[in-house]
Every structure is written in structure tokens, then in C-alpha cells.
């Protein structure tokens, strides 16, 4: 029969499969797949199962875990993780940077002779967050041309990092960028269908994109001025959040700031940060 597959597929996720995938994902990247996530995991693994033409989710899992190249395991992690992001997400963080943090940072840096502003977008997804940071920093520092901006942008997922490096977004995704900044930092790309925009070279030049699993070693040698780790820790359990938040503290400059996502507070976590305002914490 034309268009019919000859094998039957079983998209059932057994409790054993769910326990196995939860354990492997937790050990690898800290994502905590509690029982409430079972249906989501089933649906996403069923998709990979179909793409890889496996007969059942169990069969798919053994295939992904056996694949020595690690490629299918990466795709499994991609399938499980959530990459939702947008330009200028949580505007109050960008307002805080412009109105409070950067003016005093620049004064301090001028006094110390340090000419670089260093930031990290940890869990940067498809790039909207680091590009929003680059736009903000470059436009705020336009009257301080002696400063260089260096943004490290990392994610565990190579799929989203490829999109981030390409830096081309449809019109509806760049809608949150204020008109004047859009005009200055986004370039209309030739396209047949939907209007597309490419980020300007000057933005790309201050961002280094790299793959990094936050649960592993970090190649960061120079203390950072601020870290955006937003809407990432929400997927981790408290002990993992606590370890991460304390590692962030250690790699910040004194006075450096950690920004978390709107639903991620440090309540219930042992840490050394000073609370500034909801989701903004400063190193003492
Ligand atoms: C919901 S997105 C947040 C994107 C952006 N920070 C924002 O707030 O718009 C979460 C990102 O965290 C990444 N992520 C999850 N676990 C990670 C880990 N262990 N190491 C690095 N990135 C991770 C995911 O791949 C995903 O792109």
C-alpha cells in the first residue's frame, strides 16, 4: 500500500523506560524529570523514535544510549529540553542594566583601568538573549568607545547554538527590539516569504558562542561582571541549583550580578549573594 510503513510502532513509555531516561538525563545535564513530565517525555521521545524508525520507545532508548558517536544522545537531550526564548525577554533586567548597573560599572572600570565588560549568557538557547545583551551594551556604551564588550553565550544544545550563530530571525521574532535599535543593529535579509532580519556584524563580533554543559567544568579564567542564567535553573532540583548558584558566585567580580528567570528565586538555597530585587542578586 502506497504511503504505509511496514512496521508497527509502540509509543508507549513504560515506568522502567521513564525511570531510565530520567536518571540518564539527570546525571548528564541536571534536568529533573519528575513524574509530572512523563507525558511530555513520552511525546518527545515518540517523535525521535519515528525519525530514527525504531519500533518502540524502549528500542529508541537503547539505540540512543548505545550510539558511541553521542549524536543521538545529544538529540535526545535536545528533545527533552525546552528552548523557549525571545529578544528582550524580561525587560526589567535590561532596564536595570541601563539605569543602575552599567553607569556604576563604567565608573568603577574607569578608576581601575579595566577596559572590558564581560558577561555570560548561560543557557543562551537560539541567541535572542545574548544578542539583546550585545545591543544593550553597545548602545549604552556608545559614548564610552574605549570599552570592549565580551559576551560568552553557551548552551548544551548544538541545535540551538547553530541557530544562534546564524543570527537570522523572522520579523515576528525581532518584534520586541525597539525600532531605533532594530534600525541600528538588524539588517533586512533577502527572502522570498516572511521578512527576515540578520544581526549586524558588530553584535556577532562581541559574542563567543560555545557548547557547554553547566554540570561540567567551565573554561572561564577571568572574573565576569554579570551573568544571565534565566529560565534554565527552573529545570534543575534544589541541590543542583545550589551548586550552580555558588559556582556563579565564585566566577563573578565583587559587585557582579546574577540575573535569574522570573520564576526562579534563590529562596531555599544556601548562597552568599545580596538580594537586589526579585531575580537580581549581587556578589558582596
Ligand atoms: C528555556 S531556555 C532559556 C533561554 C534564555 N536564557 C531565556 O531565558 O530566554 C533554557 C536553555 O537551557 C539549556 N540547558 C538546559 N540544561 C542545560 C545544561 N545542563 N547546560 C547548559 N544548558 C542547558 C537548554 O538547552 C535551553 O536552551
Compact summary:
With 284 residues, this protein is of the alpha/beta class. 43% of the residues lie in helices and 19% in strands. A hairpin with a 6-residue loop joins strand 4 and strand 5 (196-199).
Walk me through what this model shows.
With 284 residues, the protein is of the alpha/beta class. The protein has 2 domains: 15-80, Chemotaxis Receptor Methyltransferase Cher, domain 1 (Orthogonal Bundle), CATH 1.10.155.10; 91-282, Rossmann fold (3-Layer(aba) Sandwich). Helix content is 43%, strand content 19%. It is built from 11 helices and 10 strands. It has helices spanning 15-29, 38-51, 57-66, 71-80, 91-112, 128-140, 158-166, 171-174, 179-185, 201-204, 238-251, and strands at 116-122, 148-155, 168-170, 186-189, 196-199, 207-211, 224-229, 252-260, 274-277, 280-282. The strands form 2 sheets. The protein has a 7-stranded mixed β-sheet with strand order 6-2-1-7-8-10-9. The chain has a 3-stranded antiparallel β-sheet with strand order 3-5-4. The protein is globular, with a radius of gyration of 21 Å. The protein starts with 14 loop residues before the first helix and ends with a strand. The site of S-adenosylmethionine has 25 residues, from loops.
Q: How is this fold's topology laid out?
A:
Layout: H1 15-29, H2 38-51, H3 57-66, H4 71-80, H5 91-112, E1 116-122, H6 128-140, E2 148-155, H7 158-166, E3 168-170, H8 171-174, H9 179-185, E4 186-189, E5 196-199, H10 201-204, E6 207-211, E7 224-229, H11 238-251, E8 252-260, E9 274-277, E10 280-282
Parallel strand pairs: 1-2, 1-7, 2-6, 7-8
Antiparallel strand pairs: 3-5, 4-5, 8-10, 9-10
EC number: 2.1.1.80
Organism: Anaerohalosphaera lusitana
InterPro entries: Bact_Chemotaxis_MeTrfase (IPR050903), Chemotaxis_MeTrfase_CheR (IPR026024), CheR_C (IPR022642), CheR_MeTrfase (IPR000780), CheR_N (IPR022641), CheR_N_sf (IPR036804), SAM-dependent_MTases_sf (IPR029063)
Amino acid at each position: 500500500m502506497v504511503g504505509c510503513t511496514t512496521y508497527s510502532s509502540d509509543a508507549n513509555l513504560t515506568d522502567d523506560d521513564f525511570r531510565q531516561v530520567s536518571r540518564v538525563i539527570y546525571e548528564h545535564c541536571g534536568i529533573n524529570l519528575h513524574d509530572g513530565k512523563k507525558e511530555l517525555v513520552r511525546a518527545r521521545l515518540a517523535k525521535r523514535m519515528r525519525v530514527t524508525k525504531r519500533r518502540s520507545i524502549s528500542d529508541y532508548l537503547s539505540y540512543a544510549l548505545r550510539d558511541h558517536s553521542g549524536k543521538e544522545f545529544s538529540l535526545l537531550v535536545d528533545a527533552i529540553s525546552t528552548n523557549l526564548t525571545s529578544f528582550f525577554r524580561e525587560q526589567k533586567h535590561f532596564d536595570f542594566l541601563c539605569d543602575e548597573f552599567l553607569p556604576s560599572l563604567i565608573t568603577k572600570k574607569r578608576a581601575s583601568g579595566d577596559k572590558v565588560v564581560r558577561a555570560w549568557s548561560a543557557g543562551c538557547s537560539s541567541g535572542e538573549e545574548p544578542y539583546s545583551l550585545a545591543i544593550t551594551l553597545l548602545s549604552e556604551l556608545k559614548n564610552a568607545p574605549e570599552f570592549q564588550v565580551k559576551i560568552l553565550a553557551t548552551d548544551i544544545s548544538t541545535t540551538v547554538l547553530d541557530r544562534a550563530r546564524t543570527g537570522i530571525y523572522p520579523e515576528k521574532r525581532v518584534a520586541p527590539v525597539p525600532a531605533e535599535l532594530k534600525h541600528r543593529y538588524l539588517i533586512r535579509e533577502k527572502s522570498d516569504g516572511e521578512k527576515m532580519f540578520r544581526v549586524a556584524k558588530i553584535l556577532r563580533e562581541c559574542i563567543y558562542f560555545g557548547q557547554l554543559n553547566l554540570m561540567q567544568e567551565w573554561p572561564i579564567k577571568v572574573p565576569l561582571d554579570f551573568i544571565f542564567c534565566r529560565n534554565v535553573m527552573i529545570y534543575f532540583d534544589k541541590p543542583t541549583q545550589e551548586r550552580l548558584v555558588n559556582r556563579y558566585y565564585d566566577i563573578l567580580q565583587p559587585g557582579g550580578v546574577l540575573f535569574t528567570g522570573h520564576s526562579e528565586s534563590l529562596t531555599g538555597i544556601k548562597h552568599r549573594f545580596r538580594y537586589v530585587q526579585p531575580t537580581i542578586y549581587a556578589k558582596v
